[in-house]
Amino acid sequence: MGFQYHCRNYTCSKKAKTCFTSPSPVDSVCITSAFSHTDFHQFCPSTGRIYQCKNTCKALVDNSCRPKTRTALPKHGLFMLGRLVQVSKNYRSVIRACMEDMHQAAVSARDPALHSQYSTQVSILSAMELIWNLCEILFVEAAVAGPLLLRLLDWVRLHVCDVDNMVREVLSSENPSKHELFWNVVDVFVLQGRMDEARHLLSKEASANPTSVNMCRILDDLMKKMPVPSLGNTQTLTEMELKWQHWHEECQRYLQDGTFASNSHMESICKILLGDENAILEKKELMTTWYHFLVTRLLYSHPTVKPMELRFYAQSSMDLFLGGESSPEPLDTILMAAFEFEMHQVIKECSIALSNWWFVAHLTDLLDHCKLLQSHNLYFGSNMREFLLLEYASGLFSHYSLWQLGVDYFDHCPEYGRVYLELHIERIPLNTEQKALKVLRICEQRQMHEQVRSICKIMAMKALRNNRLGSALSWSIRAKDAAFATLISDRFLKDYCEKGCFSDLDLIDNLGPSMLLSDRLTFLGKYREFHRLYGEKRFSEAAKLLLMLMTAHIAPCSFWMTLLTDALPLLEQKEVIFSAEQTYELMRCLEDLTAGKSDKQKFQDDDVETMKVEMLRLALARNLARVIVKEGTLEGS
């Protein structure tokens, strides 16, 4: 990838730690990104720190965060602009945090292949932050002439950090001005517009070399008086240009007078202050990139450059710096598109160069909130913002743990987000009940009724295959699937007939209104209630419920014999439980059961069934006799 060349400065050594001078820390901001050529695991070096861009992304993607038109509401627009700039800085801050993590992983990696892989990731992340920072300056903040140059200087200083290592090495020596890198450091400070640091080093030269005191004093004075735009300064651009012109003429006079002729280093610096392109290009190795050359060139030749003029200076600077020796890399193409204010081209080139949708999706979303992409709709009805968010969210759904984050992205895609979510939800492997419950909760919150039923049916079928009847019944109730609930209820009743007891009593005892889903489920719940009443010795209530189950015709015919058999203990109680009318009903049920069988079926019935029928007839007859005697006695009294 062409981005890899960018971070020559981000070498994975102990000295390079100074490269990670992160912007202001971000609270509660994280990021989900995988700009790796492989997968998410290789991107995040430690499993304890997985970046999820939940709060930043949610605040940005949320439609309520959209700014109003600046011209209509200037104060509110200014507030929203500041908010969007802060969000952009938050993104950059966490990119640099990822970069530092990768740097630490590369330093600690003993395997050369792993070290190389992490170093590549550092390069890619650094290039991403470089691009984002430039887009923030040009598009989000929309810096105007004057402040624009200051922002570009900060941009270059943040991404070129070799000078800090050289400064420490020079200042830690016994005689800094005699160090072989002394003038290189001074040159870099001047090239980056860091005049105070350059003047500080010049004072070292003046102290160590009395013959150069006068030249150092004059050069120091020129650096001190150099007019630069200021964010808090109220001077107009015309005033700034006038001051700069006077200062420029003074520098020109000293150079023509030969003031620095005896010291080639100072003479070279004076030429740089005058914006001499050849003098600046002589320091090509110290700048390393054409965009550093561009900013230095603007600083000393056109400090009040306007945004729309950048494209001309950028193109000529790249041509001069590369000089036909090498062709532009992908990063060069992206930065050039940004300087030309071709936002769509920036997004296109980033999509091609990067192996993940995170960067382009979030950058596009940010630009969309800045009202910069409103006119660009794609041919299939969506806009670029939604298209990229959909692509990124779809990628998240392929990951075992990040798929939940993809749901939030789909929620903020008004055109096709719900359709995409429905399609991806159906493809999630439901490996565990815990995961199924997570998916179910997501669907229920969004009233995705078809998906809810589908998930519940799938889980119910899995539970049934594993003979987990309680779980299967619970899922079928959630799915409101009457047919499946009937099937599972039959399995419960079958198990009861075979084992003589119910499993999952807690579930059956607490069915509540859910038992009305199907007649068979109602019967199961009521039959379990009969057993509970019997166990509590509430025989009269149990008898009424048992008779109701038989006469209401909600019990399966195959279960009638079981119900009649359950009546035997009640018929044999010392106290009469069934009334004469109830006893007649039981007799009728028994006769209906036996009358429905052919002679062949009766012949095939085993002795146990025959014995049950005889016992029931005997018990019913005896109970009827007891009832008649009891009722007759009561009438006689």
Automatic annotation (TrEMBL):
Molecular function per GO: structural constituent of nuclear pore
Entry GO terms, CC: nuclear membrane; nuclear pore outer ring
Keyword Chaperone recorded: no
Subcellular location(s) of the protein: Nucleus, Nuclear pore complex
Protein keywords: Membrane, mRNA transport, Nuclear pore complex, Nucleus, Protein transport, Translocation, Transport
One GO term of the biological process aspect: positive regulation of DNA-templated transcription
Function: Functions as a component of the nuclear pore complex (NPC).
Protein family per UniProt: Belongs to the nucleoporin Nup85 family.
Assembly, per entry: Component of the nuclear pore complex (NPC).
Name of this chain's protein: Nuclear pore complex protein Nup85
